[in-house]
Design goal:
Number of helices: 25
Order of helices and strands: HEEHHHHHHHHHHHHHHHHHHHHHHHH
Strand order of the largest sheet: 1-2
Distance between the termini: 118 Å
Structural class: mainly alpha
Strand content: under 5%
Largest sheet: 2 strands, antiparallel
Number of strands: 2
Number of domains: 2
Shape: elongated
Radius of gyration: 37 Å
C-alpha cells in the first residue's frame, strides 16, 4: 500500500516539469528545457514501473485518495487515483512511449523552430508536451468518470494547442489554425455525448466512482438494459470523437498540421487511445447493453475498412499513417464491441509501439529530405531554387534506402509490424482480434480481414515510394541520415515492435492473466491457426501485389497514380477520401454558416438590433421621455416652480417699496408701530 501511494507522482511529475519550464525554460535555454521535460516523463515512467511491480505482489490494487474535491449535496467526488492492472498498463504505455517521443522531439524541434524562424517557441512546445502527458496520465489513473473527464478535456485542449502550434503557417496562413479548430469542434461533439452519459450515470446510480457504479449496475442486472444502452451509447459517441471513429474521424488526418512529434504522441501514446480505454474501463456497463456492443463492433469494423481504403490512395507520408491510425483504432473498437477486451488492449499496446515508430521515422525521412532540399536550393537546382516543394509528398522521394541506413530499417520494421507479419508484435495483437471476430461475428471478421489486407498493401506502397527506386527529386537525391538524438528513440521503438509479442504470446497469455485481475477474463483466447495462417497469407499477397505494381509503374511528382488505371472511379474516391469532408461541408458546415449568417443578419441585426433595440427599446424610451418632458415636466413641474418663483418675486417687489432709504420715513413707521402697539395694549386692558 505504501508503494501504491506513489501514484499521484505519475501526474505531478510532468506537471512539475511543466512548471519549471514555464518559470525558467526560456531564460536557461533549450538544453535545460529538454532535460526537464524528458526527465519528468522518464520519472513518471519509473513510478509506473514501481506500481506495476507492487501490483505483481498485490494484484487487487488500491484506490489512493489525494484530497476532497467536489462535495455538493449528495454529490461527493474525491480526488482519488486508481491503481489496478488496467490503469497501470496505460500508465506504462503513456509515460514510456511518451518519454521516447519527448527525447526524439528535443532534436526534431531544434531544427523545426529554426526552420520556422522562431526559436523562442521551443520551450512553449515542451510545456504543452508535458501538459499533454500529465492530462493523459490523469485520464487513465482517475478513480471516477468525472476525474477521467477532466483528463479527457485536458488532452483535448493540448491537441488544440499542439495541432495549431504553428497557427500562422499553412495554406493562406490559416490552415494550421483551422486544423486545430476542427479537432477541437469534432471532439466537443463527442464530449457532449460523454457528458450526457456521465449525467445519466450520476442520476441513476448516485455516484461517479467506478467501483460504486459498476457494483450497483451488476446488482440490478438485465433489468437496467435500456438505461445501460443509453449510457453506453453516450460513451460510444465520446469514443468516436477521441478515438476518431465514424462519423467523427475527420479531425485526425488534419491533425498532421502539427509537428511530427505531436502526431506521434496523439496517435500512439495519448488522445486517440483514450476512447479505447474509456470503453474498456466501462465494460461492466457494456455487458448489460448488447445493442451497444453490436453498435461498437459495427462502428469499429466499418471504420477499419473505410479508413484503410483511403490510406491506399494518399500521397502525403503522414496522411497515410493518419488514416492507418484511424483504421487500427477501428480494430480496437471492434474488439471491445466483441467483448475481447484483452485483445483490444493488446493491440493498443502494439499499436503504440509500431505507430510511434512509424510517425517518428516519417519525421526522420522528412528531416532528411528537407536537408537535401536545402542543399539543392542552395546549389540552384532548377525547381528547387525558391519554388514551393512538398517535403511530405512521397512522390518527391524515392531512393532513400541507400541514403538513410538507420531510418530505412526501423521504418521497415514498423511497416512489417503494422502489416501483421510474424513474429512482430502486430501479428500477435491483430490475430487475437481476428480470432475473436471469427468466433463471434463472421461479418465483422470479413470486414476486418479486408482492412488487414489493405493495410499490408498501403504500407508496402509507402515503403516502396519512399525508399526504393531512383530518387524522384533533387531533395531525395541529397537526403541524409539524422543524428543519434533522432535515431536512438527509433531503435528503441523498433526493438519493442519486434519483441512486444512476448507480452501475450499464445500459450503464455501473460497480458491476459495480468488484465484479468481488472477485466475479469479468466479464460485466454485460443490461438487460431486457420485465422493466423489466412491473415498472414493475405498480408504476403498484398505485399507482393503492391511491390510488383509500384516497381513496374513508379509514381512521379504530379503524375496520376497507376492504380487509377485499374480501379478507375473507385481509386478517385479513395484519393478524395470518399468526399467525406465535402459532404460534411455541404450538409453541416455550409447550412450552419448560412444559419449563422441569417441569425446574425435577420434575427440579430434586423429584428433584435433594428426592431427590438432601436424601435422598441430606444424608440420607446425616446417617446416616453418626450411625453414626460413636454407633457408633464414642462407644463406641470416647471410651471409649478416657475409660478412659485414669480410669486416670490412679486412679494419681493412689494416689500422692496418699503425700503425707501430715508430715516424720517423709518422713524414715522416706527412711531406708527409704537402707537398701534400701545393702542392694542390699552384696549386689551379694558
Amino acid at each position: 500500500m505504501s508503494l501504491f501511494g506513489l501514484v499521484p507522482l505519475v501526474v505531478l511529475l510532468p506537471l512539475a516539469g511543466l512548471a519549471l519550464n514555464l518559470l525558467f525554460g526560456r531564460r536557461l535555454g533549450e538544453r535545460f528545457t529538454a532535460w526537464v521535460a524528458c526527465t519528468a516523463g522518464g520519472l513518471a515512467f519509473g513510478v509506473a514501473a514501481v506500481l506495476a511491480w507492487a501490483l505483481a505482489q498485490s494484484p487487487e490494487g488500491a484506490v489512493v485518495p489525494l484530497a476532497s474535491w467536489l462535495h455538493v449535496g449528495a454529490l461527493d467526488v474525491p480526488w482519488a487515483f486508481r491503481v489496478d492492472t488496467l490503469s497501470v498498463t496505460m500508465m506504462l504505455v503513456v509515460s514510456g512511449v511518451g518519454t521516447l517521443i519527448h527525447i526524439y522531439a528535443t532534436g526534431y524541434m531544434h531544427e523545426e523552430v529554426r526552420l520556422n524562424e522562431d526559436p523562442g517557441r521551443y520551450t512553449r512546445f515542451f510545456i504543452y508536451f508535458n501538459l499533454f502527458l500529465a492530462s493523459m496520465l490523469l485520464l487513465v489513473s482517475g478513480d471516477s468518470f468525472l476525474t477521467l473527464f477532466v483528463g479527457w478535456e485536458g488532452v483535448g485542449l493540448c491537441s488544440y494547442l499542439l495541432i495549431g502550434f504553428w497557427y500562422e503557417k499553412g495554406k493562406d496562413g490559416i490552415s494550421n489554425a483551422l486544423a486545430g479548430k476542427k479537432a477541437f469542434v469534432a471532439n466537443r461533439i463527442g464530449d457532449a455525448g460523454f457528458l450526457i452519459a456521465i449525467l445519466l450515470i450520476y442520476t441513476n446510480f448516485g455516484s461517479l466512482s467506478f467501483d460504486t457504479v459498476f457494483a450497483r449496475a451488476e446488482e440490478l442486472g438485465p433489468a437496467i438494459a435500456p438505461l445501460a444502452t443509453l449510457i453506453t451509447l453516450g460513451l460510444l459517441v465520446g469514443a468516436t470523437g477521441k478515438s476518431a471513429q465514424i462519423p467523427l474521424f475527420v479531425w485526425l488526418p488534419d491533425a498532421m498540421a502539427g509537428p511530427t512529434p505531436v502526431s506521434a504522441l496523439i496517435h500512439a501514446a495519448t488522445m486517440v487511445t483514450a476512447g479505447i480505454y474509456m470503453l474498456t474501463r466501462s465494460h461492466p456497463l457494456l455487458a448489460l447493453a448488447p445493442l451497444t456492443q453490436n453498435a461498437v463492433a459495427v462502428v469499429g469494423a466499418a471504420t477499419a475498412l473505410f479508413a484503410a481504403s483511403i490510406a491506399v490512395a494518399q500521397n502525403d507520408i503522414k496522411k497515410v499513417l493518419a488514416y492507418s491510425t484511424i483504421s487500427q483504432l477501428g480494430f480496437m473498437v471492434a474488439a471491445v464491441g466483441l467483448g475481447a477486451y484483452v485483445a483490444a488492449m493488446f493491440h493498443l499496446l502494439a499499436h503504440a509501439f509500431f505507430k510511434a515508430l512509424l510517425f517518428l521515422s516519417a519525421g526522420s525521412v522528412i528531416l532528411g529530405v528537407e536537408a537535401g532540399h536545402h542543399h539543392a536550393a542552395h546549389a540552384g537546382h532548377g525547381a528547387h531554387a525558391g519554388e514551393p516543394f512538398d517535403l511530405q509528398d512521397m512522390r518527391n522521394m524515392g531512393g532513400l534506402w541507400q541514403r538513410m541506413p538507420v531510418t530505412r530499417w526501423v521504418y521497415l520494421i514498423g511497416a512489417v509490424a503494422l502489416a501483421g507479419l510474424p513474429p512482430l508484435v502486430g501479428f500477435f495483437s491483430k490475430d487475437e482480434i481476428l480470432a475473436a471476430a471469427f468466433q463471434r461475428s463472421p461479418g465483422i471478421y470479413l470486414t476486418l480481414t479486408a482492412a488487414a489486407f489493405l493495410t499490408a498493401f498501403y504500407m508496402t506502397r509507402q515503403v516502396w515510394l519512399v525508399f526504393f527506386g531512383k530518387p524522384r527529386s533533387a531533395a531525395a537525391e541529397g537526403a541524409r541520415e539524422n543524428p543519434p538524438i533522432i535515431t536512438a528513440p527509433l531503435i528503441a521503438l523498433a526493438g519493442l515492435s519486434i519483441l512486444g509479442g512476448v507480452i501475450n504470446l499464445p500459450g503464455l497469455h501473460t497480458l491476459t492473466t495480468w488484465l484479468g485481475h481488472t477485466l475479469g477474463e479468466a479464460e485466454a483466447g485460443e490461438f487460431n491457426l486457420l485465422v493466423a495462417g489466412l491473415s498472414t497469407a493475405l498480408a504476403l499477397a498484398a505485399i507482393a501485389l503492391a511491390a510488383a505494381f509500384y516497381r513496374a509503374r513508379p509514381v512521379t511528382p504530379g503524375a496520376v497514380d497507376p492504380l487509377r488505371a485499374i480501379l478507375g472511379p473507385l481509386h478517385l474516391g479513395m484519393e478524395k477520401k470518399w468526399w467525406v469532408d465535402e459532404i460534411y461541408d455541404a450538409l453541416i458546415v455550409r447550412p450552419y454558416v448560412w444559419l449563422a449568417q441569417r441569425t446574425a443578419g435577420v434575427i440579430e441585426m434586423r429584428f433584435w438590433h433594428d426592431f427590438v433595440h432601436e424601435r422598441v427599446l430606444a424608440g420607446g424610451f425616446t417617446g416616453l421621455t418626450n411625453v414626460l418632458a413636454w407633457r408633464i415636466d414642462k407644463p406641470l413641474v416647471d410651471g409649478f416652480f416657475t409660478g412659485l418663483a414669480s410669486a416670490v418675486q412679486r412679494l419681493g417687489e412689494g416689500l422692496r417699496r418699503l425700503q425707501v432709504g430715508y430715516v424720517r420715513a423709518y422713524a414715522t413707521v416706527f412711531l406708527l408701530g409704537v402707537v398701534a402697539a400701545l393702542g392694542y395694549i390699552v384696549l386689551g386692558l379694558r
